[in-house]
Structures are given as structure tokens and as C-alpha cells.
Amino acid sequence: MKYSQFDIEDFLNDEFFIRWVKKPSDETDHFWLKWIAEHPDKIHLIQKAREVILFVDYKDSYCLSDKTYTDLYESIISETPPKSSKPTLHIRWRGWHKVAAILLVTFSSVYCFKFYLEDREATSLSQDEVVVKYNPAGQKSSFRLPDGTVVYLNAKSKLSYPVTFSGDVRKVTMEGEAYFEVKKDNARPFVVDLGEEKVRVTGTSFNLCSFKGFLSVALVEGGVTYVSQKGDMEQLQPNEMLTKVPHGAVSKRQFDPLEICGWKDNYLIFKDDPFDKVVMKLERWYGVKISSKLTLNADWSYSGTYHDKSLEYVLEGIGIASEFAYAIEGKNVTIYNPKQQ
Description:
Largest sheet: 13 strands, mixed
GO molecular function, one term: sigma factor antagonist activity
Protein name: Fe2+-dicitrate sensor protein
CATH class of the largest domain: Mainly Beta
Mean pLDDT: 79
Distance between the termini: 80 Å
Number of helices: 10
InterPro entries: FecR, FecR_C, Ferrdict_sens_TM
Strand content: 25-35%
């Protein structure tokens, strides 16, 4: 039976699906991500099956002792009905113990050891051959990955990737903010690992920001699948942005590409930003430390767009609109109200 014809019971009995849920690898990720992208109508069913598998106390390893192997095998044989003239195979979901037995017997100890060695070998390779790109505050960069993907890395951001993408999945890790122009490769999905969450694509352009529990994924073109820590999945359409605040729910909305992605082309944009957000953007953009002696109204906000301008130019613009002055000493900036001096 094809996976497209599966119901939840079939997924719960499928060892390849269970292995992907419990111990995902490049092989299983490669298959199931492509399959989900081709069958979006099955996402709800997949999520339900994942919840059941993760809720039930599945074993972390498929390796068996000789005694357990024999006991399980005999248990299954004793419950096998006599063969009819027209034999059929029909496995029912009648509780975890029977399914566990079927799954565990399927994997011999030799097979488990093979996966264990392969996993250790892949981990060693990824740890030994990794390139790390880091930008401090006040610095941005762009570069090309081994597969041809172009990355624009924002200030106070880090991206790690292997010297070569040798597996079935092109996987990188990121902290901060970056804009990706992913080289299309349907056979090898591109995965950005954010630690507890992941973003998966094949060939697309998108902006990704992950900072202090805040997450945003803004899709410019192509397709993106967001995978949460619990395994929940959200698919984005072009000009759609997914946002998650710390300890909050996920939401989606339309977005202005210049506002969200303009930083990579040296556009510094403020849009009804409160004072603390204005300060944060200026410190990150110019690599300075800002202290303030201002007393502002609680509803103070600022909007403005600057393209490739100096810190002094931007401060002058904000100061004229908000009636404050500033002083710069090296990397330190002080903002104050001249009328209160």
C-alpha cells in the first residue's frame, strides 16, 4: 500500500515512519520532508500519528537481548492465526506491546549496530569539518555555501555549515538573522537548525531571525516548512511571515519585504518603533553602546527609512523629529534633551 493511502493506524504500524519520529536521520528526513511537501493534505494525519508515537513509551533503541528477542518472537507466533487458502497480511493497532514486538523483532541486533556506527561516523565528520561565520555588532557579510546557496548574514549573527554537503540533507545551524537564497535541489532539502526548531526548504528565498526566544520566518519566494520543538509543522506561502514570541503561540501574516529584508541592502527601517527598539537597532547596526537621559512619553514611537547612512545622519533625523541631542565618544553615544541640561 502506498503512503498516500495510509490512515493513522497504518502510520502507527510503519517502522520507517516510527524511526523518523523517534530517531530522525538524514535518510528519514530526506524522504518524509519531500513526501509531506507533495501531500500537504496529510499534514494533520501525520501530526496525529506523531503525537501518539511520542506519547506512548517507545524504546529509545531497537536492539534486543537474545532472551527478549526469543520471548517476543514466540509471543507473536503463538498469536498468529492459521493460514487460509487466500493468505493476507493485516496488522491491527491493538496496543503498544504487540506493535513494539513486531517493530523490535524487525530490527536485528546487527542492524542496530550498523546504525550506531553510521551515526557516530556522521557525527564525527560534522564536528571535524565545520565552517563558522560570525558577525559582531556593526558588521554584515554575504557569502556562498558549498551547494551554491547565497547567505546574507546580519550583525550579531552566526552561521555554521559543513565544508561539503555530503548527505541527503543540506543542514546548517544559525543564531541571529540571515537572508537565504537557497540553490534549488529537490533531492536534498535545505535545513536550518535553530536548536529546538527547524526550517526546511528545497529552493527558495527567505529571511530568518532567531534571537532571545523570538522567531520570524518571512518567505519571499518558494516554499518553507517550519517545524516546532514538538514536531508541529507550518507551511508558508510567498509573502507570508511566521512569528513566534518567547513562550507564545505561532502566528502568520503578510509582510512588507523592504521592512523585513531591506537590511541586507543597507536599508535601516523604523516603523512605529518604541524607544528601546530604536536603541537596539542602532546598537546592532552601528556597533555602538547607547545611553539615554531622556524622559519620554509611554506612547513615544518613531518611523523612518535610511539607506546606507552614517550614525550621525540617522541620529540627526531622529533628533529633529523627537527634539533630542546626542554626543558621540568613540563607540559610546549619549542621547539627552538639551532643554534639560
